[in-house]
Structures are given as C-alpha cells and as structure tokens.
Amino acid sequence: MEFVKSEEMKKSEQFKIMIYAKPGAGKTSTVRYLEGKTLLLDCDGTSKVLSGLPNITVASLNPRDPIQDMADFYGYAKAHVEEYDNIVIDNLSHYQKLYLMFHGRKTKSGQPELQHYGIFDSYLIDLISAYNNLPKVNVVYTAWESTRQIQMESGQLFNQFLPDIRDKVVNHIMGIVPVVARLVRNPESGQRGFLLSENNGNFAKNQLDNRESCLQEDLFKIGDVDANA
C-alpha cells in the first residue's frame, strides 16, 4: 500500500474525464484540444475528424473481435505509457454494443444472454479502473448521451441526461471518473461548451477544480480556467 501526501498528489495528478453528448455533437473533435501526444482507440469509426493532426496516433478497433482488440490496446498503452501524455477511448457506448454483439454471435438465438450483461458490467468496471491506474497519463473516455427518469422525494418526475452506459453500472462508472462533462451547443451563439455541474436535467461533476461549465476548447485546462462559459 502506497501513502501519498495530499499536496504531492495535487502536483502530480493527471486527469480522468468522461465526456458525453449526442452523436455528431463534437466529442471526438474535442480530443484536438489535448496538449502533448495522444493515443486514441477508435471504437466507432469517427476518428477521421482528427486526421492530419501529427500529435495524435489512432488505433482502430476491429468490430468482429472487440474484446481482444481492447486487451491488445490496453497492453500497448501500458507498455508505451511513457511515450504519451493522453489515452482516449472513443467511445464506450459503441464498445458496449460491440461487446454484447460479439457474445450474441456465439448463441443459438444470435442475441446476448442474460449472463453476458452481468459479465459486461463487472468487465467495464475493471476496464475503467485499469485505464485510470495507468501512471502519469491523462485518460479521456467518450460516450453518447442517454436519459433516465428520476423521481424526487416529492414525487416529481424529471428526465436526466447521462452517459449511454448500462443502467446497472453507469452510476459506478461515473463515480470512479473524477470529471463527467456533457457537451452541448448554444442554439443562439452556436458555441459548444461543457456542463460540469449536476442539475435535475443533467448529470455532470467536476472534482478537479471549481468550474461549473467551460468552452469546448477549455475542457482540458484543468485548474487554469475559472470562467463559466
């Protein structure tokens, strides 16, 4: 067991961020604002928006063998972690679907069985924990957005946006990632920005600084930007 003083942890801490939005809203494009060298796993084929950027290396996931490819990517990232400043998994929502489809192809019905969903939940927690524990590197996860219905003690119901990850495990995943940010577009100005604080209609959190929102290009300036978008 390693003991680290809080002031030492603050100086050396890298960030772990989950960003989510509807498809096409600009999640993958946000990666261009990361500083340093980035290693990205493209799970859904949307990395073309990053083409031509010399500081980003892209690995494409094989949709027919996603589990082995994810294991291979993690092995490579762990072995070469000192060569990169950032690791990006883009995106978990699609990877979740590929994982379940992979197991479904082995069943008589062609669909995943109940046991596969439970196994995936534990697998995803282990996966996120493993990436979070990579030393001296920032980790960014992307996901599509979904909604769930929340009932308050008063009985009032409302819909809340959150990452599109299985209901059984999404709270756990959001709990072990320090920043969960929802990307939205201002319909009047056209500017894109991230919501970093939770409200009834939106799940978000920011445990690394005191910002409640930020412009898209400022998301990764942890601790440097204190202005709301």
Write the layout of secondary structure elements.
Elements: H1 6-12, E1 16-21, E2 38-42, E3 56-60, H2 66-79, E4 86-90, H3 92-104, H4 114-132, E5 138-151, E6 157-163, H5 167-176, E7 179-185, E8 192-195, E9 205-206, E10 213-215
Parallel strand pairs: 1-5, 1-7, 2-3, 2-4, 4-5
Antiparallel strand pairs: 5-6, 7-8, 7-9, 8-10
Helix pairs in contact: 4-5
Q: What is the overall silhouette? A: globular
Q: pLDDT below 50 for ≥5 consecutive residues: which ranges?
A: 8-12
**Count of helices?**
5
Radius of gyration: 18 Å
Beta content comes to 25-35%
Q: Distance between the terminal alpha carbons, to the nearest Å?
A: 41 Å
Order of helices and strands: HEEEHEHHEEHEEEE
Query: Structural class of the helix and strand makeup?
Result: alpha/beta
Largest sheet: 10 strands, mixed
What's the count of strands?
10
Question: Helicity, in percent?
Answer: 25-40%
Tell me, rounded to a whole number, the average pLDDT. Answer: 90
Detailed description of the structure:
The structure is a single chain. It contains five helices and ten strands; from the N terminus they run H-E-E-E-H-E-H-H-E-E-H-E-E-E-E. The chain is an alpha/beta fold and 229 residues long. Strands 1, 2, 3, 4, 5, 6, 7, 8, 9 and 10 form a ten-stranded mixed β-sheet that branches. Helix 4 (114-132) packs parallel to helix 5. The longest helix is centred in the middle third of the chain and has 19 residues, at 114-132. It is globular and about 45 Å long. 32% of the residues are buried.
